[in-house]
Design a protein that fits this description.
This protein is 71% helix and 0% strand. It is globular. It has 431 residues and is mostly helical. Keywords: Membrane, Transmembrane, Transmembrane helix.
């Protein structure tokens, strides 16, 4: 790590905190849309911290691509896999943590790869996005039906095996990056994948120890934070240590770089989260525990959440769209920073509302999100990463994977020696 300056390391930690906090919040919403919002926050944080003017006009497109990539992983089921990690024998625990390494790795691999591909997109080396989408879709379908349906290789029966779709998508994306010599985007994908995979496995280990020690805290949330923190750390490392094409900051407004991504990023993702999460029958059990007449409070939560995402979305879409008629159409640091703040703040408002934390302090981690958010905003002005140029080293990446697998074996041994049978324990193999 000698090639990293203190400011670069601080920037990486800030991104880790941003994605870690957002991923912990994501636990309240789940599925693809929740993961997409969190991934978008982490991606946008990297651009905000970069101080790279040529990236600002790509901010919406890059953040949206990162959101879509991280969001795709939301289709994977991992509840049973987490249960394997709570077992009492080495084989099942090691299997569980290793599979979490794969699942978390796929989150980061796809999210980091698509994010990096936007950063690498250049007038002299244009990315053919229709080709990327077709190849990734084809890869997901082929891998799933061959590995899961034909060969019957299952990770977590009888749960969904959608990890096979994500694995095929990731393999096809990496093949495209290698074929097109997009090595910088490949580095972002690899390090985001390594970070996300390590964070998920290590986070489950922390959850087990916390439950064994009867720590009075939401340890599932700790696992989620770990995945996001290390995934963000890896994605930021890949972005700040890769060679990127030099380009002049564009003054041209384009629909592909701004309009379509900002509508998807600022409006569509929050709307889907709101529409899927703020449902009366889902809110009633939570709010009903806190007040005698939950109906009024549920309606208020639904309305406040709707206004909270809609007003900033309309403001930023209108504000940025007006750039089309101005002499200078560049996005500035202040504008990208402002979008990051509002987008992140709305996600925190959503989780405070959906958990009923505005009525009670019973979920202390909800208020730690606000503390994390405040620390992130305070640190951003103090950090400016110093970009360095590192080449792609597949051999080293393989060694890193092997090193992580050895580490997982070590923490598996520690885990099984720390407890007997636990609630939520699952078995993949009977011996």
């Amino acid at each position: 790590m000698k090639h990293l300056s203190k400011n670069t390391m601080l920037s990486m930690v800030i991104v880790g905190m941003a994605l870690g906090t957002a991923w912990a919040i994501r636990g309240q919403f789940g599925h693809e849309q929740g993961a997409a919002w969190a991934g978008g926050i982490g991606s946008l944080c990297i651009i905000v911290l970069s101080r790279n003017k040529s990236w600002y006009n790509k901010a919406m497109k890059a953040a949206f691509a990162g959101a879509v990539g991280w969001g795709l992983g939301g289709m994977m089921s991992y509840g049973a896999v987490v249960g394997y990690g709570r077992g009492v024998d080495f084989v099942n625990v090691y299997y569980g943590l290793s599979m979490l390494f794969i699942i978390g790795g796929l989150y980061g691999l796809i999210g980091g790869g698509l994010f990096g591909l936007v950063l690498a997109d250049h007038p002299e080396k244009k990315v053919k996005w229709h080709q990327v989408i077709i190849e990734m879709t084809t890869g997901g379908v082929i891998f799933y039906y061959f590995i899961i349906e034909q060969l019957g290789i299952a990770m977590t029966p009888p749960r969904s095996e959608a990890w096979g779709v994500c694995a095929g998508i990731g393999i096809a994306m990496m093949y495209y990056l290698a074929r097109k010599k997009q090595y910088s985007a490949m580095r972002v994908a690899v390090f985001a994948g390594l970070g996300g995979g390590f964070g998920f496995a290590f986070g489950n280990f922390l959850q087990v120890l916390g439950n064994v020690g009867q720590v009075p805290f939401n340890m599932w949330n700790v696992m989620e934070y770990s995945l996001g923190f290390f995934g963000g750390l890896g994605m930021a490392y890949g972005a700040y240590t890769s060679p990127w094409p030099e380009e002049k900051p564009t003054t041209k407004y384009t629909y592909s770089n701004l309009t379509i991504p900002m509508v998807g990023f600022l409006l569509l993702i929050p709307f889907i989260v709101w529409q899927q999460s703020f449902v009366e029958k889902d809110l009633e059990p939570t709010i009903g525990k806190l007040v005698n007449d939950p109906g009024i409070w549920i309606s208020m939560a639904q309305s406040v959440a709707f206004v909270a995402f809609l007003i900033p979305a309309i403001f930023w879409i209108y504000f940025l769209s007006n750039k089309k008629n101005k002499l200078s159409q560049e996005l500035s640091f202040a504008e990208v920073h402002g979008i990051f703040i509002s987008y992140f703040a709305v996600y925190i408002i959503f989780t405070i509302l959906i958990t009923g934390s505005f009525l009670s302090f019973y979920r202390i981690e909800q208020f730690l999100y606000i503390l994390n958010f405040a620390v992130i905003l305070a640190l951003i002005p103090k950090a400016t990463p110093l970009f360095s140029s590192r080449k792609a080293h597949p051999q080293k990446w393989i060694l890193m994977v092997l090193g992580i697998l050895v580490f997982i074996a070590l923490i598996s041994l520690i885990a099984i020696s720390s407890h007997g049978e636990m609630p939520g324990m699952n078995k993949r193999f009977d011996w």
